[in-house]
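Appendix C. Worked example: Glycosyltransferase family 2 protein
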Amino acid sequence: KLNNHMTHLAYDNVDEFIEKQRYYSELSNKKKNIVKAVASPCWTFFKLYFLKLGFLDGWHGYIIAKIYAKYTFWKYSK
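Step 2, the predicted output written as structure tokens:
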């Protein structure tokens, strides 16, 4: 157990986070599916922004939900 608080910064900036998501989408084993490529990103955004209360984080919550929606699109469109 740690005695002090630890801050874990996985990414230096938003651009690095987006590039990692793009990279992970290329590693994904999902088959190309146009229906999922359109529907799944909408559901991902809705889930993260509204159901998981991302809107309470303001602009940051919106950006995170949008990036994960893009990742979901890339995952099913490649």
